[in-house]
C-alpha cells in the first residue's frame, strides 16, 4: 500500500511542495532570492499551471494503475544493466528489498524537498560562497561586458560598476571626489584580512547558482572589532588608491555602519 | 525478445535469425566503435595541435578617448592563457614610448604620452610565451585613436551676421557651426558641449550652452558682469570661467570669482570654486587638471591651491608662485614659474622637481616670446619674432614658431609676410598647435573688453613635422585654456 | 516465466477496491488539503532560524533550491507540451509526414525543437511522448539532443549573450545539429533498439496501446507519471549541482580554463555539474567569457544541453545505463573535438 502510494504520487507531492513554495515566495516578494525577477512572471504562470494540473490529476487520475509497478522513477532499474537481451523479463524482477529502498528514497526526496522549500526560511547566499567565487575574479570578468564608463553618469552606478572601477583603475583621479554610498555584506579580502574587507553583493544573471560576488574593497584597519563576516553594512566615502594593495582602488570610508539585510539583497 | 526485433526476424528460421541478428549487432558495434575512435582520434590530434600553438589574443581594450587626452593610458591585451615571459621585442608604429607589463594573462602596454589624434596605431609584441604551451607567438593589435574637434570662433557681426562657433576635426576638416549668437566673446568645449560667452546689447555677458539636448540654452547671470576666462576640461564634462561683476556697487565684493559648470546632464547651476578658507577668492589664473575634476587656482596674491570643481573636497594650498604655466599635456604635472626657478609639481604625489628649459639657438635679430612646454625634459614651443631692418628705416618682422629641444631647435611654422600672428595654443595631447593669424592691416572688430581683428584664420600645425593639418576660419581656439 | 509482481498486483487490487476509478472530488479535496497543509507549514515556520545552519549547508540549500525554482517552469512547460503531443497528435502524424530516408528524417526531427521551444529538462518527457508516438529510438535520441540547442529561445539567448563573437552561436547550432544526427545514425543501426530502453519504459509503451480511458483521465495519468519520473530526478540533480557548487573550489576550474586544451574539458565538466537549462546557460557561461577560450565556451554550450547530471538522471528513466554510457561517450568526444577545433582556429 505504502509502496504503491509513494511510487504513484511522489511526483504530485513534489509538484505541490514546489508550487506552494514558489507561489509563497512570489507572494512575499522573495522569489528574487533565487531567480532573476525578470523571469518571475513566467515562473509564476507556469507554476500555477503546474499546480492546477496536479490538483486536476488528483481528481481525475486512477487511484492506481493495474500496471503500478511500471510507474517509473529516476532511481529505478539499476539492477538491469547486465540482462541486456531479455528486457521483458527484467521489468518484473523487482524484489521486495529493492522496492523498500526505492520507496524509502522517494520518501527521503519528498521530505527533503519539503524541508528545503517549505520549512527552511528563504535565505541569501553567504559570504562563504563569495569567498569561494573570488570577488576580485568576478570584477575582472565583469569588465568584459562593462560599457565604456567614461562619460557615464556616476550617480547611476551600482555596486557592480564600482567594483569594476575599483578593480580596473589604479588612478584615483578619475573617480576621486565622487561620494559614494554602498550597502552589502562583509567578506574578507584574502591578501589583507585585517585592514580591509569587501562590501559585497551577489550579482545574479538568472538564478542563484550563477551568482557572482561583486565587491568594493574598503580600507578600515581593525574592522573586525566592529563587524564580522556576513554582517550587512553601509559604507560611504570616496575611492582612493588602495593603501595596502597598489593595484586598484579602495573605498576610504567616511562612515561604515551596520544595517539590516535589504529585501532585495542581490543585484541583477 | 523485444517486439521490434521479432518483427524483423519472424520470417526467418531461428538459426538464420540469430546469425542475422549477430551480424547486425556487429555492424552496430563497428559503427559505434568507429565513431568513438574517430572522435577520440580527432580530439587527440586537435589537442596536440593546439598545444603547439602559442598564446593568442582573446580580447583587447583601450580607451581611445583617454589615450589621446591623458598620458599613461593603457592598452590591455588579454590573452587566452597566462603569460610566462616575453622573449621578443615590442614595436609600436608610429613610434611612441611605452612600458610593457605582464599581469597574469594580460599584457599591458602603457603609453608614456598622450597619443596623436585619429591615428592608426599598431602594437606588435614578439616572442610571447604562455604558461600552457612552450611555443612562442606574436601578438599584434591595431587601433585607431579618437579624433579631436577643432573649434574656432568666427565673428561675423561686422558683416551683419551672427557669430558662430565652428567645429571641424583633425580627421575630418569639414566644418559645421555648433553654436550661434549675435555676438560671441569667447567659448570653451567639454566633449560635445560648447559653452559660448555672449555679449548682450548692454555689454554684459551671458552663457550659451549647445550640445545638451536639441536647443541652445542660455544661462543669464543674476547680476551684470563679464566672463573673462573660460575653459573646458579635456576629460570631464566640466567648464569653468571667471566672472567679474560690473563695477558700480561700492561693496568690495571679490572680483574674478571662478565658477564651474557641470555640463554632464540637464542645465546645471554654476558653482563657485572656494579657496582653502571656504570663501570665494579673486582668481588671477586657473587650469583644469586633466583626467580629474580638480582645478589649480592662483589668486591675486599669488597663492596657488588645488580645488575640486564639484566642491566635494576642501581646497589644498600649493604655496605661492609667480606664475602658472599650465599642465604638461595629459598629465597631472603642474608647471610653476618663479623669478629664480621653474618647478614641476606632480599633483598626484606632491613631488616637486626643478624645471630647466633648454635654451633655444636663435639668431641675433630674434626676439623670443611665449613659451609652451611640452614634456618634462623641457622641450617647448617658442614664439619667435625676427626683426630685420633694411638699414633705411623700414623694419620687416617675421613671426616664427620653433620647437626647442635639448638637442636642436627646429622652426615649425612661419607666419606669412601678409599676416600677423595673434595667438598660439597647444592641443591637449601636446601633438598639435593652433596658430591664429589675421591679415596685416585688418580692422578691429571693436568688441567691448575683447576686441580682435576681422578675418582671423586658425592653422593647425603638427608639432613633430611642422606639417599643416588643417586651416579654418576664425580664432580664439579653446586649446589655449 | 511467472512474474513475481502478479501477487503484488493482486494485493494492490485487494487494498484499493476500484483502482482504475479516479478519486474525483475526494481527490481534489485531498489535494487542496495537502496544499493548505503545505501552505500552513510554510507560513507558520519562523522566518529567522537564527544561525541554525552552517554557511556551507545554507548555501547548499539555497543553490539547490534556486536550480529547482529556475527549472520548474520549464519542466511544467515540457510536461504540458508532452501531454498535448501525446493526447492530440494522431499516432501516425509524425511518421507519415517525415521523409522516409533515415538521414533526412533525423535532420527533420532535429529541427522539431524550433516548433517546440522546450528546455532540455522538459525534453525527456517530450521525447518519451514522441517515442510512444512511433519514432524510433535513434530518432528520439536525435530529437532529445538537438531540441535543447535548436530551439528559438536558446538561439535568441545565445545571440543576446555572444552575438556573432568568435562564431560561438554558429558553432553551437552546427555542433548541436551534427552531434545529434551522428548519435541518431549510430543508434539507428542497432539491431534491437527496444533493448536500449529501460524495461519500465518499454512496459509503459506496451500499456499505452491498450489504454482506452477518456482524454482528461489519460492526461491526468500522464501528468502523474511524468512528474513522478521527472521531479525526483530534478530534485536529486539540483542537489548534486548545489553540492558541487559548495564543495568544489571554483578556483580549480578557472585555473584550468586558461589552458587551450584543458579549458575545453574544464568547461565541459562545469556544464556537466551545474546542469543549467539550455536556454539560460549562456548567461552563466558569459561570466567566464573573458577568462575562458571560445572553444571551451562552445563545448560548454554544446555538451551541457545534451549531457549533464540532471539530464543523465532524467534520461535514466528512458534509456539503459549501457546506452547512456555510449551516448555520453559520443557526445562528449564530439563536443571536445569541436571545442578544440574552435580553439585552434580562434
Automatic annotation (TrEMBL), chain A:
Protein name: TIGR03943 family protein
Organism whose genome encodes this protein: Agromyces bracchium
Keyword field: Membrane, Transmembrane, Transmembrane helix
Keyword Electron transport: no
Taxonomic placement: Bacteria, Bacillati, Actinomycetota, Actinomycetes, Micrococcales
Coiled coil, from the record: none
Biased composition (Basic and acidic residues): 68-84
Chain intervals for the UniProt region annotation (Disordered): 68-90
InterPro entries to which the protein is assigned, alphabetical: DUF1980, DUF1980_C, DUF1980_N, UPF0703_membrane_permease
PANTHER family, sorted: UPF0703 PROTEIN YCGQ
Domain DUF1980 per the UniProt entry, residue ranges: 21-131, 170-268
Chain ranges passing through the membrane: 12-33, 39-61, 101-120
Amino acid at each position: 500500500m505504502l509502496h504503491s502510494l509513494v511510487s504513484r504520487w511522489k511526483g504530485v507531492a513534489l509538484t505541490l511542495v514546489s508550487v506552494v513554495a514558489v507561489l509563497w515566495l512570489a507572494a512575499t516578494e522573495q522569489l528574487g532570492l533565487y531567480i532573476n525577477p525578470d523571469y518571475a512572471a513566467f515562473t509564476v504562470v507556469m507554476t500555477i499551471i503546474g499546480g492546477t494540473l496536479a490538483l486536476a490529476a488528483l481528481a481525475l487520475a486512477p487511484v492506481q494503475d493495474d500496471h503500478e509497478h511500471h510507474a517509473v522513477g529516476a532511481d529505478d532499474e539499476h539492477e538491469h544493466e547486465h540482462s541486456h537481451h531479455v528486457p521483458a523479463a527484467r521489468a518484473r524482477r523487482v524484489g521486495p528489498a529493492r522496492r523498500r529502498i526505492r520507496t524509502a528514497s522517494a520518501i527521503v526526496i519528498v521530505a527533503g524537498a519539503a524541508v528545503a522549500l517549505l520549512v527552511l526560511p528563504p535565505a541569501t547566499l553567504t559570504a562563504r560562497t563569495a569567498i569561494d567565487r573570488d570577488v576580485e575574479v568576478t570584477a575582472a570578468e565583469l569588465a568584459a561586458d562593462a560599457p565604456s564608463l567614461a562619460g557615464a553618469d556616476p550617480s547611476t552606478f551600482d555596486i557592480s560598476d564600482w567594483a569594476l572601477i575599483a578593480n580596473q583603475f589604479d588612478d584615483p583621479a578619475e573617480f576621486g571626489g565622487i561620494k559614494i554610498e554602498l550597502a552589502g555584506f562583509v567578506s574578507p579580502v584574502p591578501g589583507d584580512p585585517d585592514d580591509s574587507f569587501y562590501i559585497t553583493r551577489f550579482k545574479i544573471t538568472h538564478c542563484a547558482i550563477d551568482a557572482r560576488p561583486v565587491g568594493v574593497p574598503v580600507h578600515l584597519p581593525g574592522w573586525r572589532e566592529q563587524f564580522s563576516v556576513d554582517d550587512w553594512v553601509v559604507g560611504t566615502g570616496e575611492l582612493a588608491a588602495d593603501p595596502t594593495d597598489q593595484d586598484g582602488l579602495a573605498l576610504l570610508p567616511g562612515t561604515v555602519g551596520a544595517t539590516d539585510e535589504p529585501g532585495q539583497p542581490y543585484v541583477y | 525478445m523485444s517486439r521490434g526485433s521479432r518483427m524483423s526476424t519472424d520470417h526467418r528460421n531461428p538459426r538464420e535469425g540469430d546469425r542475422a541478428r549477430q551480424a547486425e549487432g556487429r555492424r552496430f558495434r563497428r559503427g559505434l566503435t568507429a565513431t568513438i575512435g574517430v572522435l577520440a582520434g580527432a580530439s587527440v590530434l586537435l589537442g596536440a595541435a593546439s598545444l603547439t600553438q602559442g598564446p593568442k589574443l582573446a580580447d583587447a581594450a583601450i580607451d581611445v578617448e583617454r589615450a589621446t587626452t591623458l598620458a599613461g593610458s593603457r592598452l590591455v591585451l588579454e590573452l587566452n592563457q597566462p603569460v610566462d615571459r616575453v622573449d621578443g621585442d615590442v614595436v609600436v608604429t608610429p613610434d611612441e614610448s611605452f612600458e610593457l607589463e605582464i599581469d597574469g594573462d594580460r599584457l599591458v602596454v602603457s603609453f608614456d604620452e598622450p597619443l596623436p589624434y585619429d591615428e592608426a596605431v599598431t602594437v606588435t609584441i614578439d616572442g610571447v610565451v604562455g604558461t600552457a604551451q612552450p611555443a612562442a607567438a606574436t601578438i599584434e593589435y591595431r587601433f585607431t585613436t579618437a579624433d579631436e574637434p577643432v573649434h574656432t570662433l568666427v565673428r561675423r557681426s561686422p558683416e551683419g551676421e551672427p557669430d558662430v562657433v565652428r567645429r571641424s576635426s583633425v580627421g575630418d576638416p569639414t566644418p559645421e557651426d555648433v553654436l550661434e549668437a549675435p555676438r560671441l566673446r569667447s567659448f570653451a568645449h567639454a566633449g560635445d558641449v560648447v559653452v559660448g560667452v555672449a555679449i548682450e546689447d548692454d555689454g554684459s555677458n551671458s552663457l550659451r550652452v549647445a550640445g545638451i539636448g536639441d536647443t541652445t540654452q542660455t544661462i543669464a547671470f543674476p547680476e551684470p558682469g563679464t566672463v573673462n576666462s573660460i575653459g573646458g576640461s579635456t576629460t570631464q564634462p566640466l567648464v569653468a570661467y571667471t566672472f567679474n561683476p560690473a563695477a558700480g556697487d561700492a561693496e568690495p565684493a571679490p572680483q574674478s570669482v571662478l565658477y564651474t559648470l557641470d555640463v554632464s546632464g540637464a542645465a546645471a547651476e554654476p558653482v563657485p570654486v572656494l579657496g582653502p578658507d571656504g570663501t570665494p577668492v579673486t582668481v588671477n589664473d586657473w587650469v583644469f587638471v586633466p583626467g580629474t575634476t580638480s582645478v589649480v587656482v592662483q589668486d591675486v596674491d599669488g597663492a596657488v591651491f588645488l580645488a575640486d570643481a564639484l566642491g566635494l573636497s576642501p581646497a589644498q594650498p600649493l604655496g605661492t608662485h609667480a606664475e602658472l604655466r599650465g599642465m604638461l599635456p595629459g598629465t597631472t604635472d603642474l608647471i610653476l614659474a618663479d623669478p629664480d626657478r621653474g618647478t614641476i609639481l606632480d599633483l598626484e604625489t606632491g613631488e616637486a622637481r626643478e624645471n630647466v628649459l633648454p635654451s633655444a639657438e636663435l639668431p641675433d635679430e630674434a626676439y623670443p616670446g611665449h613659451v609652451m612646454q611640452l614634456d618634462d625634459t623641457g622641450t617647448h614651443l617658442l614664439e619667435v619674432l625676427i626683426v630685420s631692418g633694411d638699414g633705411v628705416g623700414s623694419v620687416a618682422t617675421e613671426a616664427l614658431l620653433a620647437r626647442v629641444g635639448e638637442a636642436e631647435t627646429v622652426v615649425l611654422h612661419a607666419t606669412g609676410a601678409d599676416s600677423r600672428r595673434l595667438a598660439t595654443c597647444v592641443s591637449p595631447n601636446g601633438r598639435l598647435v593652433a596658430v591664429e593669424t589675421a591679415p596685416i592691416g585688418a580692422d578691429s572688430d571693436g568688441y567691448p573688453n575683447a576686441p580682435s581683428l576681422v578675418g582671423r584664420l586658425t592653422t593647425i600645425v603638427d608639432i613633430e613635422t611642422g606639417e599643416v593639418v588643417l586651416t579654418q576660419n576664425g580664432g580664439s581656439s579653446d586649446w589655449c585654456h | 516465466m511467472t512474474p513475481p509482481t502478479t501477487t503484488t498486483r493482486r494485493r494492490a487490487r485487494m487494498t484499493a477496491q476500484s483502482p482504475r476509478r479516479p478519486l474525483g472530488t475526494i481527490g481534489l479535496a485531498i489535494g487542496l488539503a495537502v496544499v493548505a497543509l503545505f501552505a500552513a507549514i510554510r507560513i507558520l515556520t519562523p522566518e529567522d532560524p537564527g544561525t541554525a545552519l552552517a554557511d556551507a549547508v545554507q548555501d547548499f540549500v539555497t543553490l539547490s533550491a534556486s536550480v529547482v525554482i529556475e527549472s520548474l517552469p520549464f519542466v511544467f512547460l515540457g510536461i504540458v507540451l508532452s501531454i498535448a503531443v501525446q493526447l492530440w497528435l494522431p499516432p501516425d502524424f509524425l511518421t507519415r509526414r517525415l521523409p522516409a530516408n533515415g538521414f533526412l528524417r533525423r535532420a527533420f526531427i532535429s529541427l522539431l525543437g524550433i516548433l517546440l521551444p522546450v528546455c532540455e529538462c522538459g525534453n525527456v518527457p517530450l521525447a518519451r511522448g514522441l517515442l510512444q508516438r512511433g519514432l524510433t529510438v535513434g530518432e528520439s535520441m536525435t530529437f532529445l539532443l538537438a531540441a535543447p540547442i535548436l530551439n528559438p529561445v536558446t538561439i535568441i539567448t545565445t545571440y543576446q549573450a555572444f552575438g556573432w563573437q568568435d562564431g560561438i552561436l554558429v558553432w553551437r547550432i552546427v555542433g548541436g545539429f551534427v552531434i545529434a544526427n551522428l548519435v541518431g545514425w549510430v543508434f539507428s543501426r542497432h539491431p534491437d533498439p527496444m533493448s536500449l530502453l529501460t524495461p519500465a519504459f518499454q512496459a509503459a509503451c506496451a500499456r499505452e496501446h491498450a489504454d482506452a480511458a477518456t482524454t482528461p483521465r489519460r492526461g491526468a495519468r500522464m501528468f502523474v507519471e511524468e512528474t513522478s519520473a521527472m521531479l525526483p530526478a530534478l530534485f536529486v540533480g539540483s542537489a548534486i549541482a548545489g553540492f558541487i557548487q559548495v564543495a568544489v573550489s571554483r578556483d580549480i576550474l578557472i585555473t584550468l580554463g586558461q589552458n587551450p586544451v584543458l579549458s575545453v574539458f574544464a568547461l565541459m565538466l562545469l556544464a556537466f555539474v551545474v546542469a543549467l537549462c539550455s536556454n539560460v546557460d549562456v548567461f552563466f557561461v558569459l561570466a567566464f567569457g573573458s577568462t575562458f577560450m571560445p572553444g571551451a565556451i562552445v563545448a560548454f554550450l554544446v555538451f551541457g544541453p545534451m549531457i549533464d547530471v540532471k539530464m543523465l538522471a532524467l534520461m535514466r528513466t528512458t534509456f539503459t545505463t549501457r546506452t547512456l554510457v555510449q551516448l555520453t561517450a559520443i557526445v562528449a568526444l564530439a563536443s571536445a573535438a569541436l571545442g578544440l577545433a574552435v580553439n585552434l582556429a580562434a
